[in-house]
Write a structure and sequence with these properties.
172 residues; alpha+beta; Aminopeptidase
Length: 172
Amino acid sequence: MPINIKQCTHKDLHILQEISYETFNETFKHQNSPENMNAYLERAFNLEQLERELSNTSSQFYFVYFDNEVAGYLKLNTNDAQSEEMGDESIEIERIYIKNKFQKQGLGKYLIKKATEIAVEWNKRKIWLGVWEKNENAIAFYKKIGFVQTGTHSFYMGDEEQTDFIMTKSLL
């Protein structure tokens, strides 16, 4: 199973938008109203927003490929791009999504490993992420690989306020 990873550039904008819509929709459409899903998708993944995120030097996107097909992606944030103030010694995994048809292939672990390698390379002391409190599979996965819940924050799906668990892993 050939797995590889590639950092996204502005040339990948449309592919990034497509996979963002697809994976977010696959993951959350069954637990949210169509109105809130559409509002979030339009706000978070419109081309202008993704272009701004790609242009931010404190954010990086990576595609993961499985058998030469884009299977998912990872977004990392440092400094002021982090969605919570966690300090200069932290790196955030803001997005980590795998298409449904590629789940259970080890791609999530692969992306976490890549994020950890980057964090160590950049001399970060901890890696963190937010995960919806109702996403039990993801929470179990993160716990299994050493993340612990250290707080919560609000996440807005359209006009609905939801709670994300903040999960952190020390890299020391």
